[in-house]
Here is the input.
Amino acid sequence: MNIAERTASVGRYVAFFESLSPDTLPELSQHVTDDVHFRDPFNDFTGRPRMERAFRHMFKLLDEVRFEVLDVAHSDTAAYLRWTMVYRRKQGPERRIEGMSEIALSEDGRVSAHIDHWDAAGQLYERLPVIGGILRSLRRRLQVD
Here is the structure.
C-alpha cells in the first residue's frame, strides 16, 4: 500500500471513528478486519465481533458519547490518532477523556489493530467517590516538588 492509499484508509477510519454510534456500528466490518486486535485500559482481545460488543457496552453505560479526533500522524507501518472522548454518564455532567490510538492497517486498508493509550487512573478512577480520594492522595505524594 502506498502513502496515498494509507492516508485515504486512515482518513476513512477517522471519519468512521468520529461518527461512531449504535447506528453506525454495523459498518464496523467495512473499517476493521475480522481478526482486529483491540486494546484499551479495560480490554485486550482479538476479533471484530468482540470489538463491536465492547462499543455496544460503552454505549449502554454512557450517554451522548462522541470522539473528536484532534490530530493524525502516520508512518509506513502505523497511524496515531490523538482524540478526546466526550460523554455523559446517565444525565450527569459532560466529561472528557483525552487519549491516543495506535492503528495498524492491513493490506486491504482496513484496521488490523487499534490500541488505545489513555490515563484511566487520572481521567476516570480519580472521579469515583471512595477510590478517587485515595488515588488523588497517592498522586500528590508521588509528585515531585
Notes: Helices lie at 3-18, 28-31, 48-61, 120-123, 129-142. The first strand starts at residue 32 and ends at 39. Strands lie at 32-39, 44-46, 63-74, 79-88, 94-105, 111-117. The mean pLDDT is 88.
